[in-house]
Amino acid sequence: MVKSLAVERAGSSAIRDLLEITEQPEIVSLAGGLPNPATLPTDAIARAAAAALEDDPLGALQYGPTEGYRPLRRWVAGRHGLAADPHGEEHVLVTSGSQQALELLTRALVDPGGLVALADPAYVGALQALRAAGVDLAAIPADGDGLCVDALADRLATGERPALVYVVANFDNPSGSTLSAERRVALAALADRYGFWIVDDDPYGDLRWHGEAPVPLRELTDRTITLGSASKVLAPGLRVGWAVAPVEVRRAMTTLKQSADLHTSALTQQIVHRTLAEPGFLEGHLVTLRTTYQAQAEHLVGALRTKLGDRMTVPEPDGGMFVWAELLDTTADSAQLLDPAVAAGVAFVPGAAFGVERLHPTRMRLSYATADAASLDLAVDRLAGVIPAP
Amino acid sequence: MVKSLAVERAGSSAIRDLLEITEQPEIVSLAGGLPNPATLPTDAIARAAAAALEDDPLGALQYGPTEGYRPLRRWVAGRHGLAADPHGEEHVLVTSGSQQALELLTRALVDPGGLVALADPAYVGALQALRAAGVDLAAIPADGDGLCVDALADRLATGERPALVYVVANFDNPSGSTLSAERRVALAALADRYGFWIVDDDPYGDLRWHGEAPVPLRELTDRTITLGSASKVLAPGLRVGWAVAPVEVRRAMTTLKQSADLHTSALTQQIVHRTLAEPGFLEGHLVTLRTTYQAQAEHLVGALRTKLGDRMTVPEPDGGMFVWAELLDTTADSAQLLDPAVAAGVAFVPGAAFGVERLHPTRMRLSYATADAASLDLAVDRLAGVIPAP
């Protein structure tokens, strides 16, 4: 009686169990996508909370509109090329993290049994939300330039009709890849031709420390829904994210959000707006984040190449939070390495967790975001003791 | 392409539009269930926010467990008769308002096309969540003692098998009625016999200023899921609620919550825990709330009986936030009175908004929670100018 289809579809809680295990202080976790605690701007958040409750207690504590706090919606619109549009905020829905945005838009745009295309491997949280919604998944291959849009085009040519194509175009989770400019143009053209929606889940785009960002998908086609979040640039515990979408899509999502949770916390929306919109704050904070993550990424990649270079290949990230390492032993199974790794005091996420159709047994996602350099060294030493030498 | 079945089912946004209209300052709104702004404990919340960010910034700002902040879960368990259970918090899921709890448990326990029984009239937010989930609704009559459990028993005897029976057993929204002790016993016995779950949505139980509360349903059968909220006893803008449920149900809801929004804001959970668990705070604040709402209820009922006693009957509430007034003109349609009422500067919610199968045209829900005495007088004067004399 207890488990409905929705619960069954949402699947196991293996990742949640893993993240709980890695909360043990003796384990160095490369598993989660948690910001480095030292980067959390606690003082700015405390000032914003105090100011919101002092200046606008009713706005922070009373029921608010389902669409979100209007100044935050305006700020988000401005960051997404809508600054000149007097009704730009009509494109914006504030959500309880971008996870909720994905869940709402899936339910708003895809009926159960409908089709969603996405890269294989794909973000675990997206897989959970999509599977819980009862949609079918079309797994598209991906490489260092992101989703293989040619392969998607072939599937479309055979008559497959996804309602959505989901991408993390900037610093993909788990693969770290960025969708190339050429593929963005091609993907946008396919969206216009076949009438599907592109969901560009973009929590990491601001965390680029090297190279130029390709043109955003939203500038290439109106059939783009961009998801953003305060989790990686401010603090995940606030649970504030957003969707920027065509107004008709935003309205459909709003209807579902009203029955899902009425609205996102008015207080945390005010905190996010007061910090992110404070002149100079975000630019300065992004410099801190990029510098921190670049240093940690270079440290992790360097240590992995030094101590495990004979056993894995490790790409050099230009941004984001993840390295998608590949074991050179083609018979390896990273899922079977996890228990010994945790026993040795280090955690990662095995490739299988991100599998849509394939298991990615030679892959492991390693996050350099959370741990400092000394902890990263310790983690690599422990990994080296667990991954068999060639 | 934009509107899925889920959006269609979730229905129109008439109530949201109404609540937006009533934000205009020249309108006295008896429409929403918003706490009187004067009762919001802004200082206590500001102190709690500052303390959380000072004492436990990581706990307030980093990702947290999907189940919720453990000290808050323990506190909720203690308020629900589980203080002596060393694992009492395992029964508790913290949610983004009790609205989310209802949505999650519906998806966890009822597949699309399954049956949910509830009183007609019923809470609008419940109707939206249930309809969005695609479940069928069995409308059960209700009277001044709440859901007519005999009528439910008759339906069960004919072979109908609801997966859930939804009640607001204390100070129902919209009817204001409290489910009698006898009916609680009978409902619990039916749950045990037929194996359905009782959802006892209880945001108003603490707002009782007269009489004794009947025994809680959770003490009568283990097949009870109790929903609670900080919205009415603290502040709705925090969006913190909870479900207290058998562990297997709590686990199924947790799986769906993970894909819905990962977890509820860690900061607002800490604020709610630090205020509600502070010795003496809640007891004192509930005295303030009960005194305020009792005075406002008596003021509204008195004014309605004085100025509209020839046109409506008005029950005297013992708690909660709502009066479910009945127009004496049996041909009246409260939905048609709304536009002239808003034009005259007063808003209410017409009975039709709460209809499951019936339209309740002679009914109107009037909230005395938000407005002070002078505004309530103004509202009644304006209503008297709109409701036709006999």
Mean pLDDT of chain A: 95
CATH superfamily of the largest domain in chain A: Type I PLP-dependent aspartate aminotransferase-like (Major domain)
Chain oligomer state: homodimer
**N- to C-terminal distance of chain A:** 50 Å
Percent of residues in helices of chain A: 40-55%
Q: Uncertain regions of chain A: pLDDT < 50 for 5+ in a row?
A: none
Class based on secondary structure composition and strand pairing of chain A: alpha/beta
How would you describe the overall organization of this protein?
The structure is a homodimer of 390-residue chains. Chain A has 390 residues and is of the alpha/beta class. Chain A is built from 14 helices and 15 strands. Chain A has a 7-stranded mixed beta sheet with strand order 2-10-9-8-7-3-4, with helices on both faces. Chain A has a 4-stranded antiparallel beta sheet with strand order 11-12-15-14, covered by helices on one side. The longest helix of chain A is centred in the last third of the chain and has 28 residues. Chains A and B meet through helix 1, helix 3, helix 4, helix 6 and helix 7 of A and helix 1, helix 2, helix 3, helix 4 and helix 6 of B.
Name the descriptors.
alpha/beta, Aspartate Aminotransferase, domain 1, 2 domains, Aspartate Aminotransferase, domain 2, homodimer, 390 residues, seven-stranded mixed beta sheet, 14% strand
